[in-house]
Amino acid sequence: MIVLLVDLGWPSALMYALIGIAQRHTPDPDSCAARHVQCDIIGNPDFYGLGIRLGIYFQWLSALLAGPSAGEGLFVNYLVFALALYVTFFVFTFGTSCTFIAEVAIMLLISLGGIYIMLISRFYRNMTTSKARTRTGIGVSIAFDLLLFPTILYGSWFWCKMATGNVRPFAESPCGTTLFLFARVTPQRMRMASGFMAFVFVYTLLAVFFYQLSCAIFFLTSLHTVLLNRREVGASEPPDQISSRVPSVPGSQISIPALLRRVIQIGAQFDRAHAVFFRQSVVSYNCGAIALSVLGVELTLVWNSISGMYDIKSPGQLIPLIIGMGILGHVVWGKLTNDFESIRGRLMGRASEAVHHSAEHEGRTVDVEAGTSFQLPDSRWMHFPSHFTHTAPEPTS
Q1: Residue 89 backbone zone (phi > 0: left; psi -120 to 50: alpha; other: beta)
Q2: Residue 355 reports pLDDT greater than 50
Q3: Which spans in the chain are helix H?
């Protein structure tokens, strides 16, 4: 119910604001003239400067490298970061300063590219986990809906305006707007390419809406079942018997709070060959998404001659850069630590076998320090050291 209210309420208010207010807004000619010198556009580094872009790229790489234990935290952190980026759309659309079409296209690439990369990584972790089921709080779904659905709605509105040739409240680049949509799109082909992008965004918008609507219907059906079962359960029945009615989620069929607190997702089990192929496919998709998003952002900056985007001077750029570097460093350090523990465990296992074999032939007493290592479902390695004394018999001649 909460997700449905979010999907219907917040996007509806945004659509009213876009159609009723933004389309009547006209950029100030003096403001636009102050932001360009001939064909060069004076960029806005506080929104898409080098430090901000690098910080976002580092977070994308972190999602690609992270294991199951750190992946969910990265997803939540990026949602908060992307929600802050989403504020720039309101500044661009409803602000008094001049905003160029290329700037909006850059922010759409950054926002939607990052969401896609994080979603694919999260889907892979949920599908390949060895747990029988994965529980995700409903708050993550609400935060995701607050970000994804309005962003797609905004993109649909933007590309529909571009396809119709009505670019208000945005301004064209001084020497023509050139964008990257899987290839270089010149001003002469802008309306045709914008029509294709409008179709993609509207189709995605409808798909997301009906998916969330189906989830809401499923939730309401489950809630109806909860209410019916609560009436049928006798007041004298022990609580443990009530909870055991649904082994997967204790008490979910008769407890409304239990139903609200968690969503059950059944994890698919793969054999080794399928898991390797699935991992390779996810890595390929994410690498392609990262490459296209980075190319789209950087080439749009170059083709539209947006200046001041390749230095880091303001604190507004340093903070996202340091955050991105810290997240990437934490993920890389975790991967290196896990690999080191794995190699050390294997070497210690082989060393203990060699010492045991040597003791049998030499007939001496040795102290053996061995260990056993195994990998947990969240990709961490557990090591159990052991120490014992072995006395081998004297060899017989």
Answers
A1: alpha
A2: no
A3: 2-20, 29-33, 45-48, 50-65, 68-94, 101-128, 138-164, 190-232, 239-243, 256-261, 272-303, 315-362
